[in-house]
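G.,

No rush on this.
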Amino acid sequence: MRADVRKAWLVTAPFARRIPGGARDGDDLASCRRRERHRCRALALIFAVLLAACSGSSVDSRLADGKRLFENQDRKGAEIQFKSVLAEQPQNAEARFLLGKLRFEAWDFAGAESELRRAWDAGYDANQIAPLLARSFLELGQPEKVLSEINPATLTNPAARALLDTYRARAQLARGYVDEAKAMNDAVLRTHPDLAAALVTQAQVRMHGQDMNTAAQFVDGVLAKYPRDVDALILRARVAGIQGQYAIAQARLGDAVAAAPAAVWPRLALVALLFAGERYDEVRQQVAVLREIPGGELEASLFEAQLALQEKKYEEARDAVAQVLKVMPNHVRALLAAGKIELAIGSPELAETHLAKVVDSSPKDPQARRLLADARLRLGKPEAAIAALEPVLQSESADPLSLALAGQIEMQRGEYRRARQFFKQAAEADPHDGRLQAALAEAQIRSGDVAAGISSLRELGASNDTQYLSEVMLVLTYLEQGAPDEALKAVEALAVKQPRNPLTANLRGIVLLRKRDNRGARQAFEAAAAVDPLFVPAVMNLVNLDVSEGNTEDARKRLEGLLVRQPGNANALLALAELKARSGAGYPEVIPLVEKAVFENPDVLLPRSALIRWYLAAGDGAKALEAALAAKDRFPRNAEVLSQLGSAQLASGDAQQAVLTFRDVVIMHEGVPAAHFQLARAQYAAGDLPGARRSLRRALQLEPSNVEGLLAQIKVEASAGNNAEALDLVRTFQKTHAELAVGYLVEGDILFADKRYAQANAAYRKALAVDDAAVAAIKVHQVTAAGGSPAEAARFASRWLAEHPKDGDFRSYLAERMIAIRDYEGAKGELATVIALQPDNASALNNLAWICHETGDARALEYAEKAVRLAPGNANVLDTLGMIRLDRGELPQALELLGKAAQLAPTAPTIGFHYASALVKAGRNGEAVRELEQVLRPGKPFAEEQEARRLLHSL
């Protein structure tokens, strides 16, 4: 027994001897037992306190020993002492912090992070922990954690706060946000001008701005003050390496290793430099040393993976990087290496998974984005590929590799003009790369020197039989010049060099289509698909051929087959949706395909844009608005997205917000007429006629002959009551666009509104003579009846239907007129014919359901439910089904339907009144009163207004 414990035991011994086995005089047995229990508890407590005191003394002693060893650079001895303390007291915050600091100074950042986090949780001083933890996050490739997990407000020490802010600046820099990093670091230097870490960060900012000479000067200045600062030595080496001064770089890294021989990172930087210089034997020597340094094992594994990849030992490389990811699954450089390895092995699916994580963590890393785009291109996902690469392409320093990859992606998308432009930029950026020089020939051709351009392409193709790109460009150039025979010869030459490349067969198909040889084109596309079933352009070309030849079933099977292999392929999903719609499928069958395309490709604009269009077509303004807002979150400055958002806002009744959205579009594209037309449309809907007039005037200055703008200008003047001016404008329009019926329809509308029925009738009949369409026929019928000739109107309708028995629009119009005069049987007959012609016509089904409900026909519910399935976002359809359910006593279902209808159409008084009626039946009178007050606002008369007033009065 240890002496101090034995002494404690002796102190307690007298108490132990005095605990009796029997009783004192006069005590009963129970009293004795109670006293015995109390004495035992007292003994236990005293014993525990004494032991704790001696234990605490031992912990303090060992902690002090550890600190002394740490100061004397005996890191191993210090680590033993700190671990000994923590084995006995796991929540000892100071020991936990010191162990974390020890690992931090050894550049074991993974170990440091773990211990520092636990010290923080145990309540240790944030001023000491936060800067070390932030630096650990940075070195582990987790810059976002510096910004999200450490609150600067928790620090009270100015020096600690300055150091943390410096590391926050570096985190912004690592994420590619250079301006934010500079501003943050400049703020630190204003208060701490001699802080070495901030001075180094200042140099790092200069490096990001490609100002290497200034960066070198900055770092040299830091080293003059702090010659053994490891950060500064490593950064000076990086600058020298970029400048091609490899001897200086290696010397500075040697200094860093000497300054911190037990640290991982300086040696790591030295290994990276040797690797870049292809000095692989020296790399192996340094990696062996690295593996022996605490915390260097994972980094050694990463370099071993890169060495194996360099030697094409792919499985060995994969195993090495797996060791890192097993311990640190979000290690950015390990994920990047894993992505490269999987691409080399031919596993683009796994590569995409790894690289997407890298891009999420470091969104402005051009290498990660390029590799991710490459993976997606190989997976046959060109839309997702170009989306991944877009931020790189938009930067001023887009590199030749990224530009060339963008060209390849656009080739697969079929965007040949964009492809040529990217190849041209790549060639200009790297004039010594023969593969890219094909684009320079394209520049010659575009400038008018076609012969010289084609000659250059031929020379490039002949100079090296692997210069596949130049010959592809030659084919495309011939096609653009309208020379398909020459293009076909170039394709045949291409096939000799790369007969198994699916792009070759696909090009042959495109050329044969130009020659109107559909059969040969089909064979070529099928050959391309046989070589690579995932080569999407060939499959889509076959689908287009099938559709053009009326083989929609074959097209459907082909698309579904592609989706079995690539369930998330955006192009295939969107094409299948279009195909189903052409085949008569309703929105409930079509829209889920587009929704899936968005879900599987969240970073691709095309499916999001398509989804908004489909929702708008289905009349579901609320869902269109939801989809447009989600698209804006992903693409906040994309004009197409903003335009669709404005359209969705108009469809959902928010014209004022649409005006603001379209103004943003105009700011972005002031010189584009369509932007001004859209703004004018929103201003008109919002009642701002002067604003609409100004926008239209600007649009027509940019494009004087724009039909949409001219018609909108007429509409604005008519709405403002300037009928004479509107008629002058429309007659001028008719002179320049006599072939368009719309000019006569607009004239008729103006005259009709002015109750000049005979003149309006003449204008409408001119429109009917130009275009034998339902819209003109409906207007002729309307104006004839309004002009006091109902018999003539009836005769016109009979003649029209005899000549156009399948005109569903005209029959639907007649049905609505019949409903208005309560000719329900006549309306039923017309609507039944419409539904026979168009089984998925939601409007016809809705009207038929309403008539059946009014006449007590039990089929009302069936028709209304089908209408809601076809148009779940249409307020009128929901209102009809809601009222049917309300009258059937199905109050919960009715409330849900009518509530949604009122939400979708907040300005429709009839729908609001119906919802209020349901609220009253549910006993929710307060809500009903608010709804009725909204409905009965002045200036909104409607058929059931008096009934609504009576209901409000009763409440």
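When you get to it, here's the other one too:
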Amino acid sequence: MEHSRHLQSRAVNHEHCPNDSTSHGNGHTPRPGARPEGLPYYFQPPPSAQRHAPLAPFTVQILDYGTAPQAQAKQERVTQACSQCRLRKQKCSDIRPCQSCQENNLCCEDADVPPPKQDRMMTQLQKSVKGVSDCLSQLVDQFGEWKARVDSRLPPSRNHEIMSPLGVQASVSIKQELHHVTEESPTERMGLPGNHTTPAHMLLDEWLQMSIFCVGVPYLRSLVDKGLRVSDYPMQLEQDRGLLRIWGIGEGRDSDDGAQGPGSPESSTDSEAPSPAPVRKGLWGYPSSEVLAGTRVPGSTPREYFPPKPRQENGLGADGRPDLRRHVMFDLLRSYLEIMHTFHPFMNENRLRRMFNDFSDQYSPDATPLNAHSPASVHGVKRKRSESNLEGLPSRRGEIERSLCNAIILLVLALGKVCSYKDPLPAPQDDPHPHVRSERGYIRDSPPPKGSFSNFNSNISDENCPKNIDLLPGLAYYAYATDILGNQQGGNTVAHAQAMLLAALFFSQYARVLESWSWISNACRVVLVLIKADYTKLLRVNSERRPTWSSEERYRIDSILYVYWTTLQLESDLLAEMSTLPPSGISRYQSEIMYPEGVNENRSQDEVSNSVRQNDGVSAGFREGLIMKLYSSQSFLRVVLNAAHDALYSPGRCIDFGPTSFNEVANHACTHMETLEGWRKLLTPELVWSDDDYPSTDLNIARVRAKYYGGLYMMLRPYLRIAIHTLNFSPPPSRTTGVTQHSLPSRYGSAAPNRNVQMVDLDEDQRKIIGIVCRCIDAAIRSTIAFDRVGEEPGSQYQYFQLTRRKRLIVTNIFGTLHAQFGNMLVLASVYKSKLYPLLPSDTWLTRANLAALFKRTIAVISEEAQNSPILRMDLEILRNIQEKQGLE
């Protein structure tokens, strides 16, 4: 009992000053009365509604002793008294001001009490974090000041201008008036985007009016039935055609060669199942000279087909080897320099000529005999003349060494051979094994040769199945060169990039898209390695420092720059029409890498004349200064067009082609168009032209104009799309309707006597829209006919839309050029059938007669190259389908 009373006394005396408050002035919840040491207790918390009301007394329950009497409840005082009550040692209430301070008219303030130990640790931690944060803020401010000082020293052209690579006149920067073209860091650094919607075949899916153009084309219908899009036909056809069998016959993807054939479930797991027996006279051929019934060991020369006519078009000599006679080699070098080198001068001409001299001295059969110390006595072993060689031919000079230098020479010979071929290029023979072709195969105009798989291997003679190396000009040189390159795929030097570019240009002449792209991709890989190795030296900020470098270093850097800008042009030109191919990423550096030294400097006419006089007969009269200006123009236009592709056609932009986005598209188009016009104003006199001029007779000038008009059309095409599909023209009542064009002749071509022109009062915005639409139509037509007079006399007569060119068109990317013209025809035909067409001015080029003439000439031009490209054959089929349905024959 005494112990019970003792506990009760401790519980009661704990609160010696009764107080009904629950919290003090700072809003903290007061602790309940202190419990007896070692004894738990339970109590019910007060309702929230009674927060500031006096608490009802509560009972402390003694758990250990059930018979203890209840302790008398005491009122609890506040946890912390104010400073005045603490000083006077008075009771304090939780009301502020407290009752004591109110009665004595004192200032009631809470006393500063040292926080508990845990609170002190938290305070110290907060102070430490705040100190670190302040230190970081100072570092950020200092870094910002340093960056501002560095940026102020850099030339503004890298971020706010596009510099023209032309000479003194064109060194003036072309300002960009809208920042969205030049200040979008994430997407601009990517350069040319992948999966953009620029290609011509994408129109068939995106333009609603063109859906009728595909009706009646069986292959396109089969794609849709298989769940594919109509616009997938280029990649499908190009993949289905397979590879060109360099040493063999035709092209294709053979499933019977033992590597690609699908094995049956029974035999796929049988390790003892015999693999397909190789066929000696297979489709892929052999790089051997005389494999006759196994009597000779395969060598390094193909067994050739000997047609009855002299063998002078394919690059093979009478003995079945590449023709390396000295005069033939230098004729082909001249052909290369006059055409391909003018397009892309990434090879040093003087060094190339020295390489040809050395190669001819060593390997030409009619060269001066070499002395005992000649490299020919060291490199390779001379082969004995075979009995098949014709009498009177000079003896061979030994097998060609498998060096990169020799591969470059052979590829230059291949390009020279294909450039000297003026007729339409022949195509590989049809596959003699039609059953191994893909089920989605493509159509050829010529029927397949007679015979079956079995009799091909036994009975078909070479006269019936000529090999590709016998048919295709330049392929013999290409075959030897790529055999060398195949062993040097891991090379990462400038020479490796040059060789790969030459191989890509050769296949591009035959419109073999994927094979050409493969070589371009390899060159891009090498270029990226070269750029990263010398990145700081290649930046444009170092252009002014080049005179301080040694001549060897300047030559080395210029060689890298030439292959970079050539690779950029070739890849961009190809991806512009085949956007499903993945870009390499070299275009992300297009605004940072400087131009080659010969491109930037404006060489005087005396320097050009002296350079020409120093050259021998191979390159006499070569317009070196003009070559650099042309190359500068092509490089600059490529950068501008890549930026336009990204801004207007990139899938990441997601431009809504609705009426609400009209101003956005117009701003983008006008910005890029002003850049293009600024470049044109800076052209030198040799390149200046007027829109009223006839198409140029010079191939290089025509290339520049075609690039300009094609770029202008590409920039304005989204504008035209919105105007046709989404804008609703509601003009005021017309003053005169139904006026025919009998008395309103077109400026160019023929007038359409049955065209109704709506003579209406359009408001200012509508007239502006019609004006831009007309400019887009005009650019599409001019880019289409840009090459129609190439090779003609400058003063010759010309009738618009009449093809007068008498030689095969030779450009860098023949597929891209003709596929773009196909797209121009699709757009023009769509505009002609749109609701917008009656609102066009009376002197528009787009009349029925002119459109029919354009279809006729475009079909004729594409037909020249269609036998080498399944994509172009499908383009022809679509154009003929439109021509028939629209009555444009």
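The chain is about 45% helix and 0% strand. The chain has a mean pLDDT of 75.

Enjoy the weekend,
O.
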